[in-house]
Amino acid sequence: MRSRGHVDLMAEMCEECWQRLANGLAAVEGATAPPQDPAGSGPPRCRACRGVVRRYPTYYERWVDLATVELPAGEVPQRYRWRLIKAPAPRVPVVLAVHIRVVDPLPRDPVLPAHAFLCPRPGGRRTPDTRPSPLRRGRGQTVTVPCH
């Protein structure tokens, strides 16, 4: 397949390989929310704390729970920073959540943190996160996904 989700792929992948790639991205980026139920009653809620969240699809057909407020990027560890974009034409107009990982925003630039960063559940992640992000790769490193 050459197109999937909300993006055109740069390589052809079978369904199994696409699912493996999308699931891997979701695990690294924290996009593990269930899909938004259009017929659901009320706003989406966090499965852990039951707080209201903003649930958006990603470009790779997974869903992420985001906070309901923007924060300055300097207050949010890199691994929890997201932005919303409109899917590129000619697709149906839809808002997608995009993980910020290539160009760091300025410390005062607004970002939408993943809800996991602000979640008040026991073990919430509002504490400083000094671990290196698994999304950071050195120059010239690539992720190879074999397709059979």
Task: Please state the oligomeric state of the protein chains shown.
Answer: single chain
The proportion of residues in beta strands is: 15-25%
What is the number of E strands?
A: 8
Topology as H/E string?
Answer: EEHEEEEEEH
Task: Report Rg.
Answer: 16 Å
Structural class determined from secondary elements = alpha+beta
The largest β sheet comes out as: 4 strands, antiparallel
Q: Provide the spatial order of strands within the biggest beta sheet.
A: 5-8-6-7
Average pLDDT taken over every residue: 79
Number of helices: 2
The geometry reads as: globular
* N- and C-termini, Cα separation: 12 Å
Give your account of this protein's structure.
- The protein is an alpha+beta fold and 148 residues long.
- 13% of the residues lie in helices and 20% in strands.
- A four-stranded antiparallel β-sheet has the order 5-8-6-7. It has a two-stranded antiparallel ribbon with strand order 1-2. Strands 3-4 form a two-stranded antiparallel ribbon.
- The chain is globular, with a radius of gyration of 16 Å.
